[in-house]
């Protein structure tokens, strides 16, 4: 475990996280549009991306939410939904007053908790504090916490604003979930 305080906390994990090869889990009240794009890009390449964020009205965050939502729906001009190739991404949007957690986990390599949102300011300009965990047992414990948060946030009518899961995407496509999972696996391995 390592602890970092000050500006530029993103230097301790962000680039590596955005190059993850297996999965990226994010909990952040605010997300900058450029980081939303990077997450979508990784998900389109087959990396499993799971995001918990807020419905905060801040304009940059709303732009990021718009991009995340758009990525999870087939375009209006597609002739058939079956032609749509969805990203390997799930999104939980939570009522803003309930979301204070900031957590980042990827590829069973690192888990990060602290004060930094997934924004340019949070990662580079603001004075923030993060704790970076690299021991497998620590990462697994925080990964379990993420799954618990996902369940708590997305299954509660009080907190959940919008949830899009892989099951929802499979239904949109009229495909079994196993077929969608196989599609993502082949895409991840460049097959």
Give a brief outline of the structure.
With 191 residues, this protein is an alpha+beta fold.
Description of the molecule:
By secondary structure, the protein is α+β, with helices and mostly antiparallel strands. The chain has a single domain (2-188), classed as Endonuclease, Chain A (2-Layer Sandwich), CATH 3.30.870.10. The protein contains seven helices and eight strands. The chain has helices at 14-17, 33-44, 59-71, 120-125, 136-154, 166-173, 177-188; strands at residues 2-6, 23-27, 48-54, 89-94, 103-106, 110-114, 128-133, 160-164. An eight-stranded mixed sheet has the order 1-7-6-5-2-3-4-8, sandwiched between helices. Helix 2 runs parallel beside helix 3 (59-71) and helix 6 (166-173) crosses helix 7 (177-188). The mean pLDDT is 92.
């Amino acid at each position: 475990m390592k602890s970092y305080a000050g500006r530029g906390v993103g230097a301790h994990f962000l680039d590596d996280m955005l190059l993850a090869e297996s999965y990226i889990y994010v909990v952040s009240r605010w997300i900058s549009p450029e980081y939303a794009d990077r997450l979508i890009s990784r998900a389109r390449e087959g990396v499993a991306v799971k995001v918990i964020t807020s419905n905060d009205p801040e304009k940059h965050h709303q732009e990021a939410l718009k991009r995340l939502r758009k990525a999870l729906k087939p375009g209006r001009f597609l002739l058939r939904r079956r032609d749509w190739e969805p990203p390997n991404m799930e999104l939980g949007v939570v009522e803003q007053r309930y979301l204070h957690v900031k957590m980042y986990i990827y590829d069973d390599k690192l888990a990060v908790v602290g004060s930094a949102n997934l924004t340019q300011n949070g990662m580079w300009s603001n004075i923030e504090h993060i704790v970076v965990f690299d021991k497998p047992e620590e990462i697994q414990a925080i990964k379990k916490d993420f799954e618990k948060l996902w369940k708590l946030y997305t299954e509660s009518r009080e907190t959940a604003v919008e949830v899009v899961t892989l099951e929802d995407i499979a239904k949109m496509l009229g495909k079994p979930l196993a077929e969608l999972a196989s599609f993502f696996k082949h895409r991840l391995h460049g097959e």
